[in-house]
Structure formats: structure tokens, C-alpha cells
């Protein structure tokens, strides 16, 4: 990777890990509750975004900043990309339709709210906040900055593999309290992250570098996967695997899209 990419990665890890581990330390000392930890850790999403902004300013100046901000556009999102962007919600709906066939009853959102103790609008907002903030701020960095640097040295498929590794390791502190951990869960986590990275790389390249496209897909995926963790997640996960396979077979690994992959010259 280029020097800017290395500095970016170290900054993204340092900011997020510093915030999340500090909050976890406060939780261990009973200064904050687990519920507060699960809310305050939202601040860790700043890592990828802040690192991207700093590195663009330091390494690429005003011209790079102008081109960096030009990625926040809907201009090149065609109907097929819109379909992919909202595919998590479509798969979510399909999973909900099949849910009663496998469970014998419809999925109960009321029971979910009861289980999560989401009794008020403010509680629901606090629960939703991390899903929204992480979808937005992560994409500013991972796709908006790092992916183009990786794709300068490697083809799109190879870059997706490297980004999966970096992105997955960045999540490590969350396994202390947010996710369960086991070798099987870790494998599934990295595999699902890789599948998502292939789809996000396709969207980013196909839209000629639209970070808004990847933000919306990331957000739709977060919302689609935060309710039922069995049947509905199985439907969405299977759909994503098939979509990633289709992308690779149709567009091949060089660009993962009809358009040439976006490279670092976006900031030059």
C-alpha cells in the first residue's frame, strides 16, 4: 500500500480502538452500564471517517479534498445499482414472507421490542443510532479513501480480500462486548464481511466512486439484519452470496464492474 494508505489504516485503528477500549474499561469499572456502552461505542465509528479526512488534507491538499467530496453524489447510480442498494430490504421482506411457513407464525416486532426493552421512542432511537452512524462513517473511510488506494496496486477482487482483512481486524474490540466469539463465529464473520466487500466494491466502482451508494447499501444491510437472526438473516445472507458470485462471474476480478475500478488518481 501507499504511505497514505498505511497512515490511514493506523489512524482508523487507533481512533476506533482507543475510543472503544476506553469505554470498555469504564464499563469494567462499573462507571457506565452495558446499555450505555452499547450506545457510547457509536463514537468509535469516527475512526475511518476522521482518518480519511486527515489523510486527504495532509497528503492531497485542496485538490484532493475537492475530488474526495465529489464522491458524495448520486449522479452515476443507475437503476441496477439502486436495486442492489436496496436488495437487503428486499431480501428482508422475502425472509419475512417465508418466516411463518417455517415457524408457524408471523414474526413479531412487538415481541422484539419487548425483548430489547425498547419501550420508548428515545430507547428505539438509541438502539438505531449505532446502525446508522457506523454505516455512514465507515463508508467515508473504507470505500471513500482506502479502497481506491488498494485498487491502484491490486485488481478489484484482490483489493476486496485485503480490505476484508483490514476491516475485519478493525472490528476486534467489538468482540469484547458487542459480538460473541468462537472460531466458527469468526470464520462466518470474515466470510460475510468478504461477501459484503465484493458487493460494496462493485457498487463503488460501478457508480464511479459514489460513497453515497455504499452508505445506503451498508445502512440497508444493517437494518435488515438487526431483527431476526435465524430465518431472515439466512435469506439475506444466501441472497448476498448469490449476488457476489453473480458479480464475480459477470464482471471478473479485474474491476468487479462494467466501469474501470476507481484508483488513487481520484485524489491526484
TrEMBL record:
Q: Where is the CAAX prenyl protease 2/Lysostaphin resistance protein A-like domain?
A: 122-223
What GO annotations for molecular function exist for this entry?
endopeptidase activity
Q: An example of a Gene Ontology BP annotation on this entry?
A: proteolysis
Keyword field = Hydrolase, Membrane, Protease, Transmembrane, Transmembrane helix
Which InterPro entries does its entry note?
A: MmRce1-like (IPR042150), Rce1/LyrA-like_dom (IPR003675)
Pfam (any one): Rce1-like
Which residue spans traverse the membrane? 7-27, 39-60, 81-99, 119-137, 184-204, 231-248
**Per its UniProt record, what PANTHER family does this chain match?**
PROTEASE, PROTEASE-RELATED
* Protein name (database record): CAAX protease self-immunity
Query: Which organism's genome codes for this protein?
Result: Flexibacter flexilis DSM 6793
